[in-house]
Amino acid sequence: MAADTGRPQALRDNHVMQPPDLSLTRALHRACETTVAMSEGQREFEKTRQRLIFSIPELKAAMHDEYLRTVTVIAKAVSRRIGCEPHDFEVRVFSGALTGAMMAAFDRAPGTPELVYRALDFLDAGMPLS
Fold this sequence. Notes:
Number of strands: 0
CATH topology: Tetracycline Repressor, domain 2
Pfam families: TetR_C_14
CATH class: Mainly Alpha
Radius of gyration: 14 Å
Protein name: MftR C-terminal domain-containing protein
Oligomer: single chain
InterPro entries: MftR_C
């Protein structure tokens, strides 16, 4: 998804506002739906941008920093939702697992909201492999 300086704060705010009975991954799914809504033109631009990034080794390597930033954004959202610190070990590992799922989903195709939602749904279901 395209970098946007307002999106991390909006994602955290939307995540906290989800009903408390939702699982963390389901709440993040719903927060993403409202935060990263894109027009068809924006989606096409983003697909093209991601294809370029993944085709140039130096740019693909730079994505590592973006993934670490994403872990921090998710950790802040999760910690606000459950009332703990974003640097707590379990929160960082959980956030890293969510980020890792998205990284794996994006490895072979440009990232789309549908891939994010599919990864979150898979995690929320307990990652069934059968």
